[in-house]
Structure prediction request, 322 residues.
Amino acid sequence: MLIFQRSLTHWISSALLAVTVLSVESLRAQSFAYVANAGSNTVAVVNPGDSSIAAQISVPSGPTALAETPDGNTIYVASSNMSNISLIDANSRSITATISLPAGALPTTMAVSPNGSLLYVVDQGINAITAVSTASNTIIATIPVGWHPTSLAFTPDSALAYVTNQFSNTLSFIDTAANAVVAEGPVGANPTAVAVSPDGQSVYIGCAGTGTVQVWGPPGLVATIGGFAYPKSIAFTPDGTRAYVVNANAFSVSVIATGANSVIGNIPVGLLPSSVAVSADGSTAYVPNLFGLSLSVISTATNSVAATVPRIGVYPVAVVAH
Prediction:
């Protein structure tokens, strides 16, 4: 792995200053949440309008991660027990294809690039990112990163991806054109989550070891926000004014006002919240509760739980807002 001998401040500053923000109008309505249930081998389709479960889609054993194409037509489901990825057609709600991962793969999180061309899969089994071409549904690269990668996020122009390496206490920078790491640098202890703001100018990193969220921008480290309890997942509202942070050990979600980089609310949710996704219109945040076997539906207008969908499945671990 190529590691440039430059500071993380330089690299994040340079990368964010170079980001071209793409303004793409969504062609689809935001109408459902998809939730992966690791223990019941299903993906639940939830209608947020009435908090009903519209469908339960059977998937291969141990679904641990979800990702969605920008057009909303395809949902990717990574199954850790089977070392594969299933493609669900969002219209028919059926599996249309399967991508085999290398034997021993342990997919934990994944994301589709904003331009829709790449699926990046975090594989803790080999400490690498598996790059998949969405056009051919084939693996095109294996990208070594740090020790125990936990989360990844693309810049809005799809040129870069950031990967948190929990046991290395580092952030890896991947050039998506080359599918290669071009830099790696230190961040806070035990980084577990990363998200890039919609304008591409800020990177938020959840650090479980210090109970903080670091905010990096063109000047470097802009702020360190405290008061979190194992920040496991971060999602921005589409306008970038707020970030929602899952506190796995506090059974809550913190709300950050990004203008001031301060916490403006803490929302109690269910037992062991595992991830968060915000709807395209910014009105709703969805939080699956791993041991609560439920989905918390948060109103972003009031920063409170508007509904709780019970019996969503066994061990709901990941969510995308479709």
Notes: Residues 8-17 form the longest helix (10 residues).
